[in-house]
Amino acid sequence: MDHPDYQHIAQAIRFLEDHVSEQPSLETVAAHIGFSPFHFQRLFKSWAGVSPKRFLQYLTVEHAKQMLRASESVLETAFEVGLSGPGRLHDLFVSVEAVTPGEYKSFGRDLQLFYGFHSTPFGDCLLAASTRGICALSFVEDGRRQAIEELRSEWRQSELAEDTERTGLLVDRIFATPDREQDEPLRLLLKGTNFQLKVWEALLKIPEGRVVTYGALAEAIGHPGAQRAVGTAVGHNPIACLIPCHRVLRTDGGIGGYRWGITRKRAILAREAANNLRIPD
After folding, report:
1. Where are the domains of the chain?
2. Residue 249 and residue 211 in contact, taking contact as beta carbons nearer than 8 Å
3. Residue 88: predicted pLDDT
4. How many Cα atoms are found within 13 Å in the side-chain-facing hemisphere of 56?
5. Is the separation of the CB atoms in 175 and 1 below 8 Å?
6. How far is the C-alpha of 239 from the C-alpha of 237, rounded, in Å?
7. Domain 1-57 -> CATH class
8. pLDDT value of residue 90
9. Which parts of the sequence belong to the HTH araC/xylS-type domain (predicted)?
10. What is the pLDDT of residue 91?
11. Half-sphere exposure (CA, 13 Å, Cβ side) for 70?
12. What is the Cα–Cα distance from 57 to 20, expressed in whole angstroms?
């Protein structure tokens, strides 16, 4: 659950990305980050569930294209039950509520939000929620002060109070092991335009281990040709991981953008692929 070594993992992933065509050895990658091969292998497998060698295959464009082909009908199938159906992450159900038009215009006036910083498998995060649901989950890129300022800019009329005990319970549920049962849905409280809400709700329909293109997402919500607008809405997703904006790729299998860094997007996708396509090393 708590992975303080994520920065070492990210450093290794960046090295693997930069040298993917060379298929670097375990010893080479370990030396790059200053670890012994044994220590690095143990650390990496603890985090990813597979060896660095196996993980490397999940970083290739070829693998991304295979995932896209395998996921071609995923949105069509998901949308047969409608956008109002529950999103699903492992055995984790997600229910969605949007703020009222008045709350949207007033930037959340009279809403009381509690927040906290926590470690996750993908680095430190900031989670904020109200009694109605989680309204923000971001990875800390430029320090905690900057993260708080960004939260305040989105919810500038809301009352913020730190409560790591309450947010910790939510973080534990979000990043729980896949076989851990969840008793009730995780509630999300979203603040966005009607178009953004439609895109974010569509993202909830993409299962773990599947990916779609920006174009396919645009078609699925009834706006074919609006890839750029969809991309902008995806990039403004306020709730990382739970609303899986990391599962959208370019048509050519390219990674595309990610609000919290390309390396982190690759790490999340590859770890999900490892969870779903686990092959003994």
Report:
1. 1-57, 74-249
2. yes
3. 42
4. 18
5. yes
6. 6
7. mainly alpha
8. 39
9. 10-107
10. 40
11. 15
12. 9
CA 265 – CA 3 distance, rounded (Å): 16
Check whether domain 74-249 has CATH 1.10.260.40, yes or no: no
Active site residues: 245
pLDDT of residue 115: 98
Q: Locate tokens 């047969």: which residue?
A: 80
129-134 own/partner pairs: CB under 8 Å, 24+ apart: 129/166, 129/167, 129/170, 129/189, 130/158, 130/189, 132/97, 132/187, 132/189, 133/95, 133/96, 133/97, 133/186, 133/187, 133/188, 133/189, 134/170, 134/186, 134/187, 134/188, 134/189, 134/239, 134/242
List of the chain residues with pLDDT < 70: 1-4, 71-93, 177-183, 277-281
Fold match, 1-57 / 74-249:
yes
* DSSP-assigned letter for residue 277: S
Q: Which helix (H) or strand (E) holds 273?
A: helix 262-276
Q: Looking at residue 87, what is its pLDDT?
A: 43
Task: Read off the pTM.
Answer: 0.84
